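2 proteins. here.
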Amino acid sequence: MKVLVVGVGTMGARHVQGCLRAEGVECVYVLDKDDKAIQYMKNIVSDDPICDLDKVQIVSDFKALPRKVDLCIVATSARGRAPLLFSLVKTIHAEFWVCEKLLEQSIDAIDSIEKYMRGQNCWVNTPRRVKKIYNKVPRIDPKEPFKAQVVGKTWGIASNAIHYIDYFEYLTDRQVVSLDTTGLDSNWYSTKRPGYFDVNGELEISFENGGKLTLVSNEEELGLKLSIRTNTREIIIDELQDEYRCADEVEIMESEFQSDLMPIIITDLQNARRCNLPDLRTSARQHRLIISSLLDKSPTKTLSHPILEAT
């Protein structure tokens, strides 16, 4: 398998690392003009005894891209993703595509991405449905009410709500019907990425058939915990400690990062021509819900790119 990774910042470098860990990957092309990002990626790969840096080929512009790859991973920042994908689709043929979240910054841009990627095998990297600790949670019947809450310290609701929306749609086999943003703070804070903002406060998400998910982010909380309550059970996941708790069952699970998940995703693509990430159409619908609810509350009319790799 030949892979192209576009953008090797913090997340992109881990994608490269994960691809090199996967069986059957013979070459990873890397497209990025930032010398610091390239060096960061090289350091990550060189420090991993499983990875072979000789399999990495650095490409500085579109003219040097291979015309055909098996998998293209787009891990650039969200802003400007739509025109980038348009250029990529015109330049290369990829059997499979994986895009990082957030997909883009506006509904128009999301619409453009769907248009450009029509007919492509494309998934979006919101991987909680792939991680082992979240798959320990029994699937919830689509008609059974549930209440869930995520509580943590300034963890980035605007950029990370997509993870939980996708996970609970997957876990419960039902869709979101509304988002209530009245509990969010009016003042947004600057993230580590210049020009991007996020927000604290409370976001309530309603699902079909009596499902409710509340996201809480503030400066007073410690850690990041997910609780799920149904008619028959209560489950708590400490996301930073990788602890799963249900009744008397307590299990500390091995942490999984993007470099651990990519080999699973690649194996699924090779064997089944699909993976367990949400497809582009599903994720685009979820993105539109978030953008339409949050964009008017943002002081700059832009949403933050994800800044927490572990989430």
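next one coming up
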Amino acid sequence: MNNEKTITDIAVGIVTYNPDIDILAQNIDRIYDKSNLIFLFDNSSVNQGEIETLLKNKYRKVYLIKSEKNVGLGYAYNLFFERAIVRKYHWVMLLDQDSVCDSGLIDEYRKYINIDESVGMYTCIHRDRNLNRTLSPEFEGKYRDVKRCITSSSIMSVKAYQNGCRYDEKFFIDKLDYDICYFLQEKGYIIRQINYLGLSQEIGHSEGHKVFGHWITVYNHSPKRRYYMARNGVLLSKKHNQRSFVKSVGKEVCDILWVLIFEKDQKKEKFNSFCKGIIDGFKMRI
């Protein structure tokens, strides 16, 4: 890459917590030659030594940032942007440890990033590896504007971050993506989805079930995840006017019902975590 591209191009940030090393390696492989600035923030994984060995032996240009405790995703995301600002990058691409992006995705984003300054975030088409299907409807044309998207594989403008669009570290893990999308739009930015299948993702241990002709997906998340999903659903509706409180809580109630019907393990623990999350969401200040 030439010097101009190094200044204006896309930095990449990956967050890990007890990752599958083989999938992590696949993840890094897809982006390793596409950016000069790659960060990996590890949230005190039990296999942190394996991560260090992997990077030392195969991916020496990846900057490893080690945390002594699990501080969640928001802190790591904001840190990536701060580091990108110092190095004068204009965009940051975020990935998680279970996401394997297409090797052409970053180059595909490069076709768009300097065209429309009103776009604060770009995303792509995603595929769930467990369900073997895409997670968004097909559409015609090169792109469309959307209201929200998942964080993994998205790229966000450093300029938008500097304009106050920071990740809310209170959310810790779940619904940070919805929160930042609402925040971007409240600041006047557009979220643009390109018509490109750019990400293969594993969301929990997802399973599809047909109910009255409609597909219901359960993810077999842990009780801890169920807590954050419920709590943060309430926080979102308190924080953003465009997020209906009734719909937010209603969705969480529906989700836990499907968990109780279709999931096999720790149903009581998951229900108790859900209830605690809803209560804590009401209590927390935004």
